[in-house]
Amino acid sequence: MEEAKLKAILEDAGINYVKGLDRFMGNQALYEKFLVKFLYDGSHEEFNMALSAGDMAMAEKAAHTLKGTAGNLSMEILYQDADAAVKAIRAKADTQEIMELAKKVDGSYERVCAAARKIQDR
Questions:
Q1: Helix ranges (DSSP H) in 43-94
Q2: What is the CA radius of gyration of the chain?
Q3: pLDDT for position 1
Q4: Residues whose CB falls within 8 Å of the CB of residue 84, separated by 6 or more in sequence, listed in order
């Protein structure tokens, strides 16, 4: 994919293209491969399932994993949202606050996945 187009798609989704590419030592093809691979990461689904089950320990673990993966791929908004969820769970915030943060995670997750699908479908 043309670099300018890729950069626009990623930045629209809250992904810092320059930082991400730097993490992959300038290898755009490898960065794209890992962005597409993110679509198959199960930590977001685990996070939501754990929240639904009321298992805050598992929700914290899954959100932390999601945060780490997002950070490694320079998905800055998803990273920030997952980090906020992790902190709220660790602080034993009330359920309503955690669920509001989970909605933010869901939104930023969907945006980065939409960007990854555009890369995958080209």
A1: 43-53, 56-72, 76-90
A2: 15
A3: 72
A4: 101, 104
- pLDDT by position in tens, the chain (length 122): 788 999 999 999 999 999 999 999 999 999 999 999 999 999 999 999 999 999 999 999 999 999 999 999 999 999 999 999 999 999 999 999 999 999 999 999 999 999 999 999 98
In terms of Cα–Cα distance, which of 113, 83, 82, 85 is closest to 12? 113
Per-residue b or e along 85-105, where b marks 16 or more CB atoms closer than 10 Å to that residue's CB: bbebbeeebeeeebeebbebb
What would you measure as the largest C-alpha separation in the chain, in angstroms?
Answer: 45
| DSSP structure class, residue 98 | H
What SS3 class is residue 15?
A: strand
HSE-CB at 44 with a 13 A cutoff on CA atoms is 22
